[in-house]
Amino acid sequence: MSLHSNAIADWIVLISAPGIGPRTVARLLDRYGTPGAVVGASRDDLSEAGLAPAAIASLKQPDAAAIERIFAWGAQPDAHILTRADTRYPALLAEIPDAPPLLYVRGDPALLSEPQIAVVGSRNPTPSGLEITRDFARRLASDGLLITSGLATGVDGAAHAGALETGRTIAVLGTGPDLVYPAVHRELARRIADGGALVSEFPPGQGPSARNFPRRNRIISGLGVGVLVTEAALKSGSLITARLALEQGREVFAVPGSIRNPLSRGCHALIRDGAKLVEDPTEIIAELAPMLHNLLAAGGPDVSPAAGAVSSATDRGGANALDADYRALLDVMGFEPVAPDELILRSGRSAREVSSMLLVLELEGHVSSAPGGRFCRLGP
Predict the structure, then answer these.
(1) Structural domain of 320
(2) Is the distance from CB of 100 to CB of 223 less than 8 angstroms?
(3) Of 118, 329, 339, 367, which has the fewest Cβ atoms less than 10 A away?
(4) Are residues 49 and 137 in the same domain?
(5) Residue 228 and residue 256 in one domain
(6) Are β-strands 197-200 and 102-107 bridged in parallel, bridged antiparallel, or unpaired?
(7) DSSP string, 118-165
(8) Predicted local distance difference test score (pLDDT) of residue 292
(9) 6/29 same-domain check
(10) pTM for this model (two decimals)
(11) Are residues 222 and 354 in the same domain?
(12) Are residues 229 and 275 in contact, defined by beta-carbon separation less than 8 angstroms?
């Protein structure tokens, strides 16, 4: 990959300094403008800006070997380093108060800006919880949504696996991008990176730490337009993700369960606090269409090509007003179930375009999902 080494190095030096987190980075950038200007400021000026002596020393004498290790990782074909100044940095994530200044991505960084929903829950779910999670993820992914989760055991793993059956998924790591935790998910992580993305704010070589995972949760919720909790106890970490989602203005969904199942109590608590009770993935799809539209109407970030299409399709109002591109895709579909890969061949469009357009067409009621990740046209 091509790296503007000096600029990226300044970002790395800045966030590597002790005591400098995302909020401090934002404050320093407001004062100095760029990471390079922060690094180049005098010691007295940095002290006046409120930095501790240890942070100033780190800025003035950065760990060159550590920076070289990061660049060595970034030189791999599927590795990407995204700063807040990078146009590929996901706009929705950039809106949260403590957005990570740097993202390390294995796979396709463009997917971070695609419409997505987080699916989270217990690390020790019931068999029913696993089945429900996998089914929701499979069907939501077949509808064109990316599934985001944290690669943990239990619900996270089921969500990723279900999404891979019909679509793509993003795993947000609590380690550096070159490590997989838990190790049992190494093969799953490889499959995710092949068609989706692994993303982390932690540098290569960073191992798992208890303090990393709560930080990871804000990225899981911040990347998407909503969070689905499928099964969780009252003290589950997934409830933290749901709380963060609410603070970030995201939609929260929860699957109800038996009153005798302790792993349903977290979901029931969320529902009592205002989360939307869902029993079928179509209910989530119905909720997200107006949310994407309202984000754009309120002047929020352009979530993705699909989000813009949802907005314009809603404004146009109905099948008779479909523009030529959407009409052309419907025309090549025919009336038999067809897989997205076949539509890519027939239409000559990219996988990303077809996925986004199918999501819009389903939200507008022109197509429906069919078994095996296929789609059916519903009308003329």
Answers:
(1) 294-377
(2) no
(3) 339
(4) no
(5) yes
(6) antiparallel
(7) EEE--SS--HHHHHHHHHHHHHHHHTT-EEEE---TTHHHHHHHHHHH
(8) 55
(9) yes
(10) 0.79
(11) no
(12) yes
Instruction: Name which of 335, 331, 376 is nearest 349 in CA terms.
Output: 331
List all residues 6 or more positions away from 327 whose beta carbon is below 8 Å from its beta carbon.
none
* Mean pLDDT, residues 359-368 taken together: 78
Name residue, tokens 């930095």: 51
**Structurally, how many domains does the chain consist of?**
3
Which amino acid, 130?
A: L
Residue 288 lies in a domain: no
Please tell me whether residues 69 and 114 are part of one structural domain.
no
Q: What is the pLDDT of residues 248-257, one digit of tens each?
A: 999 999 999 9
**Residue 119: strand pairing partners:** 228
The rounded distance, in Å, linking the Cα atoms of 102 and 17 is 14
Evaluate the omega torsion of the peptide bond into residue 290 and state whether it is cis, within 30 degrees of 0: no
Assign 226 to helix, strand or coil: strand
Same domain, 62 and 175: no
Distance CA 114, CA 322 (A): 22
| Minimum mean pLDDT range among 197-206, 285-294, 303-312, 350-359 | 303-312
The residues, any chain, with a CB within 8 Å of residue 137's CB and separated by 6 or more, are 119, 147, 158, 159, 160, 161, 162, 163, 169
Is residue 144 domain-shared with residue 245, that is, in the same domain?
yes
Query: Do 318 and 245 lie in a common domain?
Result: no
Residue 5 has pLDDT above 70, yes or no: no
